[in-house]
């Protein structure tokens, strides 16, 4: 019966499903958590037509305007070829500009435009809301611990 409240004493479907070895797999749990984060992000940013990779690129560009497009891709955890289309969209929207390096014509430096800076100010506030929703079942201490552990995984996985 859709719309009726669930009997709190009855088990939820996800409580009765056997995940097998997946329950113990960090990668699986990260993927499921990322799916939730992506859904929350999509809702928060639907009117801005901004994807998570674009937000990451904008934030990274704002903080590191001296880096090339290839270096940005490496630092946000994607391949340079994967970053091209998201950056093309940001450029078409007037949020970033690309400048050819005078030292090496194969390299481009990416900068935020004033419009990109304005959008990023609002996006930073929205991402804080997404993070709050994502971690609402965690204490502040648990959130800090999770973030610290994820950072360790990120650094450890690059070697």
Q: What sort of overall outline do the alpha carbons produce when their principal axes are compared? A: globular
Major sheet characteristics: 2 strands, antiparallel
Which structural class fits the helix and strand makeup? Answer: mainly alpha
CATH superfamily: Winged helix-like DNA-binding domain superfamily/Winged helix DNA-binding domain
Strand content: 5-15%
Specify the CATH class. Answer: Mainly Alpha
Distance between the termini: 51 Å
The side-by-side strand order for the widest beta sheet comes to 1-2
Count of separate structural domains: 1
User: Which stretches are low in confidence, meaning pLDDT under 50 for 5 or more residues running?
Assistant: none
Give average pLDDT, whole number: 88
CATH-defined architecture:
Orthogonal Bundle
Total beta strand runs: 2
Could you characterize what this model shows?
This protein is mostly helical. It has helices at residues 13-16, 26-45, 52-63, 69-75, 80-92, 114-134, 140-156; strands at 96-100, 108-112. The chain has a single domain, classed as Arc Repressor Mutant, subunit A (Orthogonal Bundle). It contains 7 helices and 2 strands; from the N terminus they run αααααββαα. Strands 1-2 form a two-stranded antiparallel ribbon. α2 (26-45) packs across α6. The relative contact order is 0.10. The model has no long low-confidence stretch (mean pLDDT 88).
């Amino acid at each position: 019966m859709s719309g009726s409240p669930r009997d709190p004493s009855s088990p939820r479907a996800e409580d009765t499903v056997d995940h097998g070895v997946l329950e113990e797999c960090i990668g699986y749990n990260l993927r499921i958590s990322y799916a939730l984060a992506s859904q929350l992000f999509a809702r928060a940013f639907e009117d801005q037509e901004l994807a998570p990779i674009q937000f990451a690129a904008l934030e990274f560009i704002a903080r590191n305007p001296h880096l090339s497009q290839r270096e940005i891709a490496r630092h946000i955890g994607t391949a340079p070829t994967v970053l091209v289309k998201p950056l093309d969209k940001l450029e078409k929207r007037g949020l970033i500009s690309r400048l050819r390096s005078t030292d090496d014509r194969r390299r481009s430096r990416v900068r935020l435009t004033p419009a990109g800076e304005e959008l990023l100010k609002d996006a930073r506030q929205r991402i804080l809301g997404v993070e709050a929703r994502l971690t609402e079942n965690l204490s502040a201490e648990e959130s800090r611990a999770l973030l610290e552990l994820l950072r360790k995984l990120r650094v450890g996985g690059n070697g």
